[in-house]
Amino acid sequence: MPGPDLTGSSITVVPANQASWADLQAVFGDRGEAARCRCQWFKHPGRAWYAVPVEQRAADLRADTHCGDPTAPSTTGLVASLDGEPAGWCAVEPRTAYPRLRGQRVAWPGRDEDPDDAGAWAVTCFVTRAGYRRRGVSRALAAAAVDFARDRGARALEGYPMVTEGGAEVTWGELFVGSRSVFTAAGFTEVSRPTTRRVVMRIDF
Fold this sequence. Notes:
Layout: E1 11-15, H1 21-28, H2 32-37, H3 54-65, E2 77-82, E3 85-94, E4 120-128, H4 137-151, E5 156-159, H5 172-176, H6 180-185, E6 189-192, E7 200-204
Parallel strand pairs: 4-5
Antiparallel strand pairs: 1-2, 2-3, 3-4, 5-7, 6-7
């Protein structure tokens, strides 16, 4: 699944099980919040995430993605490469796979949406490898996530970016959920604002 080329470089995106675990490890790195979280924040509600060791988070990510097994019946995300080098990741799977999304401040205020609707999928996290940022990787991943979810029977796909303001302090969590502009470019539209800074972006198939 090719992504947009904003720099003259070639970006390709594949389901995570078609990439190697080494490629995904390269994207997450071994330092910083991405390496510590391993895309497990939305998998554990409340404070449960803090009780899960980093090693277990990595093991859970590997089990969910089935990296290196192109015959696996399922996988949970996408891996982007730029000029053949692993460059980015996004998590995308049925919304019901993310217990933290059931929190009232994340997705539901002002909406008449069933949290248990397995036909609605979610993009919860983007990681771009150090040295590959601001080169269109997240946009390529968001665009590919639309096809990925639709091809697997999703009825709709959502994202939950934070709106950042000039001069405001930005936390790591606000960066990893993606930006509103990335979702807009992939065809999503804003459907609600659970908080003053949280936006729910959605595309219906």
